[in-house]
Amino acid sequence: MNVTTHPDPRQINLAVTQEELALLLNSMNHLLQLMSPKDDQSPSQAWYDAELSAAVGSRQKIAALLAETIRQKEALAQPRVKEARVYFIGAGPGAPDLITVRGAQLLATCDLVLYAGSLVPAKLLDYAPDNVEKHDTATLSLPEQIELYQQAKQAGLQVARVHSGDPAIYGATAEQMQALQALEIAYEVVPGVSSFTACAAALGAELTRPNVTQTIILTRTSGRASPVPDSENLASLAAHRASLCVFLGGNQLPGNVAELLRHYPPQTPAALVQRASQPEERRHVATLGTLLDGLKLSEWALTTMLLVSPALGSVEQLQSLSRLYDPEYAHRFRRAAKNSDTASSQDVDG
Ligand SMILES: C[S@@+](CC[C@H](N)C(=O)[O-])C[C@H]1O[C@@H](n2cnc3c(N)ncnc32)[C@H](O)[C@@H]1O
Prior knowledge:
With 350 residues, this protein is α/β, with parallel strands linked by helices. Helices cover 31% and strands 15% of the residues. The strands form two sheets. Strands 3-2-4-1-5 form a five-stranded parallel sheet, with helices on both faces.
């Protein structure tokens, strides 16, 4: 992984600068005058000394400028080790075209890839150059990943650290960032399309509806490696009756649904979405009370999201439209229909 970089020859500017040229002409001018004083003038020693000193001054300046130019060119010609940088890239929910343009561009130019292979489909790696090392972090401990980051620092590599969905959610990125800070390795986060929005898209649904719910709760059930604090138990979150998305709970569906039913009415719309946006995508839509009826649970154990939300009901069921596109409703960017209420609103980011 030892990589040294050489300067781009196009960065070496061989042209004489305007300043160098002006000084050169100035100096020549003085020297010419010294060599051919006008006939009608009898040059005094003082005039001669002044012209000579001006010529010498100009030439000294040229020498200094040329020396600086040479120093810069030599510095550019030295092999340099680039500064290492780690990019945490959100891969999105799985469809290769749901990564961001920035994420794909960074993958295309990176020197090393670390990716969460249990969730990031291999297709995403097609964005990276064929000849760079690619490590599936599913098989690596944190110290082993940190060792790779250290090697990258020594070799000045650009590392693409690819996480599924958005790196800010259940990606175990915080501990890596902390290690990078301790190693003084720069990092940047490139956001991604989270699976919960991909699931909403798969259901063709909006998760926030006026007067129904304007809140989305993202949560998960406790895992061996990542316990959820007691204060965030599923039943207590269910008490809000907001839109709620349960990550990482495909293998605990009966328990989770039972907890949710402690506060959501059984007729609340609910859905399971598996591998949203991928060719294997599956959806199961029902009410919370009937969600698991006849379901082969083992088929939904992996890469599944449970969504429950009163907002998943149809427009007729909910009888609630946003006023945002109401013809009578004016705001900063749109006039209201004649004779209507012209009050402006801050809610214009639809
Ligand atoms: C470790 S978390 C990663 C979440 C990711 N950072 C995100 O923003 O979507 C993995 C869980 O996310 C959910 N998930 C990830 N991709 C999914 C997809 N394509 N369809 C449905 N759920 C998905 C599942 O609940 C899965 O168990």
